[in-house]
Amino acid sequence: MAQDKQLAWDLYHSYESFREKSLENRRFKYSDIVPLIEQLKNKNIFKVDKVGKSIEGRDLYLISLGSGKTKVFLWSQMHGDEPTATAALFDMFNFFSDDSGSPELKKYLLSNLSISIIPMVNPDGAELFQRRNIVEIDLNRDVVRLQTPEAITLKNVFDSLNADFGFNLHDQGRDYSVGNSSNPASISFLAPSPDYDKSLTVPRENAMKLIGHTTEILNEFIPGHIAKYTDDYEPRAFGDNFTKWGTGVILLESGGWRGDREKQFLRKINYIAILSSLNSIASGFYNKTDLSVYESIPNNEKFMMDFMLRKLKLQKADKEYLIDIGINFEEENIDDARNFYLKASVEDIGDLSVYSGYEELNLSGYIVEPGKTKQEIFHSIQELENIDPVNLFSEGFTNVLLSDCDFSDKHSYFAFNIVLNQSQSPANGIKPDAPANFIIKKDGLVKFAIVNGFLFDINIPENWNGNSIVYDK
Ligand SMILES: [Zn+2]
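^ thats the input. predicted complex w/ zinc ion below
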């Protein structure tokens, strides 16, 4: 184990030399990875085959390397908006194709393993940055009925390989926590069940041991941030059926990490997790890990919110109530889904002490009120630029009215929200699902504004970046 941990640290320290620099964030598309795959054909360690097509006609690639007797199959992004592992796979291709790093490790892996990889099983969904494929079918519920060409391709390749291990690579929501702790579940694992009885077949036990082994390695880097999914049997899912058909399946889900919305640190952790796992499959060391390690991984729970405002006072009809406000951000696609803006809403209010925020702010002693819409009508962007947000917020307003102005964006870089149609002012309220626009006071003075879930500190207005909403329809 000490050696395996040392290897993981070596991968950690040399990562930057192999990181695929052209994949900068999560919003890359099929057209970004095809040239990278085509380049692999020039390296004789890779075999590149087209094994199917998506509904919109995008070729699905199978990349094979190694000539060992143990067979490993990895596939990523069957959900189009879950790209973290795909990027890590391209980092791994660089590791294998670059002659500079760890020649002995590469030789060892390639002589002991036959590795087969389909990166981005759902390129049509990735194009729109959506979970499902282009006809709105969830590929991970299509392994039995086989209605989609993407699922048929994945199943055909699986059947042709008869792999010992399978890596089912996904992303999960930021709201997952490690048990009821305040840590996001940054990596979640599962060795899926082969049946409703959750039978411990040999392939499943192998997957459990490998997950346990990999968890002990990842604890070097992200201790307390690893969880496992419920093993309830899902008869329509790939992992469960591949387990039933004799492959030890490792479900690996990348969740949230504080300060890493683009998940580039978790991409690096994926790279380490996958290469470390391949190494312990090659050596067989995973087999020495007791099943109890897997069983002791905490469960995936949902106790995370994006931004938590603690211990505010809410005044209603001369009474005061102590509340927390939990805010979540949704990503709204822009620029053909190559980019996004964040739209905040109230997830919950009240005693939220069992939840944790990616960010938290203790506002004990402060009073919260809904942000209001200023009734004066502005007529141009120039007029908006002349508004001093400190004055606006000090009067209790988070939104301004803009009329007779050609403004088509759905978000803005102003400190305040823009309302294009007076009848569409955001709902005034502090309640679940309401937009997160608040004014926060102490001793009768406005101290903070929350505009679209972002904090504006009246005392340090220069810290504002601008993430507001345009209400128009
Ligand atoms: Zn998924």
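The two ends are 59 Å apart (CA to CA).
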